[in-house]
């Protein structure tokens, strides 16, 4: 198969591992920088060009689109879908998962456990917003933040009011969530492929920090999931429409709670912590499922 990887950097761990895994199984692997791709959008023969040449037909494409280029990256992926190329994750599903508020609303509609979340736009609503999520301490998250950036733990009501007022003053979009104290600064990253959790790790925040992201100095260890945690992770990925996802879960006193569903989960942390060849499992999934013109949305939406 000819497989494209939409990635800005061929030297990134995840991109390198996918290339290695694909070539080891006899596939022709190509790294395509989505920002170097440009499109001929027409009714008869949509095309994608790069560096002055039309790209050949690809059997499948693996999107590794960074959050900062979601708009252009998903437009390129949509063009591949219109041309009949099989996407590992579809553009519509990626767009859903990148919109934190929309993704939580979709998960809520499916009855999936979530931290109690509030969203408002007026300063006059702040007192009720804080009460809505159970009061302080509480977590305030910028909707555009990634890797723990723009996430604040407000330990007192006064601190929460000050941060919320500051964000509103900057016209920043944010949400407020209950603080799950019993999680102890840890969460679970569940790596879902298809209808299975194929690997999972526990991410623990460093002392004095509540954000468990590995980019923020958190540590990762192998973890055994409960049946409820596995079922929650798979249901969350399916709700987003993602074939491959990193589902982040908190362990709470009232069961597993989904924090986020990541459409481009990194491979380094999960492969290191679990000693599993996740990249090869992704390629194997593509081999079993890829067909031309199999995209559910056909680039719509």
TrEMBL record:
Sorted alphabetically, the keyword list is:
ATP-binding, Ligase, Magnesium, Manganese, Metal-binding, Nucleotide-binding, Protein biosynthesis, Ribonucleoprotein, Ribosomal protein
Gene giving rise to this polypeptide: rimK
- What detail does the entry give on cofactor binding? Binds 2 magnesium or manganese ions per subunit.
Q: Where is the ATP-grasp domain?
A: 104-287
Q: What is this protein called?
A: Probable alpha-L-glutamate ligase
| Pfam families cross-referenced by the UniProt entry | RimK, Rimk_N
Which PANTHER family does UniProt cross-reference here? RIBOSOMAL PROTEIN BS6--L-GLUTAMATE LIGASE, RIBOSOMAL PROTEIN S6 MODIFICATION PROTEIN
Q: Which terms does the UniProt entry file under GO BP?
A: SOS response; translation
Q: Which residues bind ATP?
A: 141, 178-179, 187, 211-213
Q: Locate the residues binding Mg(2+) 2.
A: 260, 262
Which PROSITE patterns does this one have?
Answer: ATP_GRASP
InterPro entries membership: ATP-grasp, ATP-grasp_RimK-type, ATP_grasp_subdomain_1, RimK, Rimk_N, Rp_bS6_RimK/Lys_biosynth_LsyX
Residues annotated as binding Mn(2+) 2 are: 260, 262
Q: Where does Mg(2+) 1 bind?
A: 248, 260
Please give an example of a GO cellular component term from this record.
Answer: cytoplasm
Q: Name the needed cofactors.
A: Mg(2+); Mn(2+)
């Amino acid at each position: 198969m000819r497989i494209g990887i939409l990635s800005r950097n061929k030297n990134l761990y995840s991109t390198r591992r996918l290339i290695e895994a694909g070539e080891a199984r006899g596939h022709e692997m190509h790294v395509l920088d989505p920002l170097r791709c440009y499109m001929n959008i027409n009714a008869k023969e949509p095309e994608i060009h790069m560096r002055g040449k039309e790209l050949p037909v690809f059997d499948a494409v693996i999107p590794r689109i960074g959050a900062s280029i979601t708009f252009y990256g998903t437009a390129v992926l949509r063009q591949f879908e219109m041309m009949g190329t099989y996407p590992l994750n579809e553009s519509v599903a990626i767009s859903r998962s990148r919109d934190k508020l929309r993704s939580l609303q979709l998960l809520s509609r499916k009855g999936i456990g979530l931290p109690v979340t509030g969203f408002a736009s007026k300063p006059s609503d702040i007192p009720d917003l804080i009460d809505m999520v159970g009061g302080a301490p509480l977590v305030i998250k910028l909707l555009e933040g990634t890797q723990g950036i723009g996430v604040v733990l407000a330990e007192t009501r006064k601190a929460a009011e000050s941060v919320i007022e500051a964000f509103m003053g900057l016209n920043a979009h944010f949400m407020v969530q209950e603080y799950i104290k019993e999680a102890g600064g840890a969460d679970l990253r569940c790596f879902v492929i298809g209808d299975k959790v194929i690997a999972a790790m526990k991410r623990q925040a460093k002392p004095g920090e509540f954000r468990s992201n590995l980019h923020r100095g958190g540590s990762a260890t192998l973890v055994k999931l409960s049946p409820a945690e596995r079922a929650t992770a798979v249901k969350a990925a399916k709700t987003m429409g993602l074939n491959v996802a990193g589902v982040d879960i908190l362990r709470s006193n009232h069961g597993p709670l989904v924090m986020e569903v990541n459409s481009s989960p990194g491979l380094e942390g999960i492969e290191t912590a679990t000693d599993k060849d996740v990249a090869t499992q992704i390629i194997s999934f593509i081999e079993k499922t890829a067909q031309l013109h199999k995209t559910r949305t056909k680039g719509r939406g």
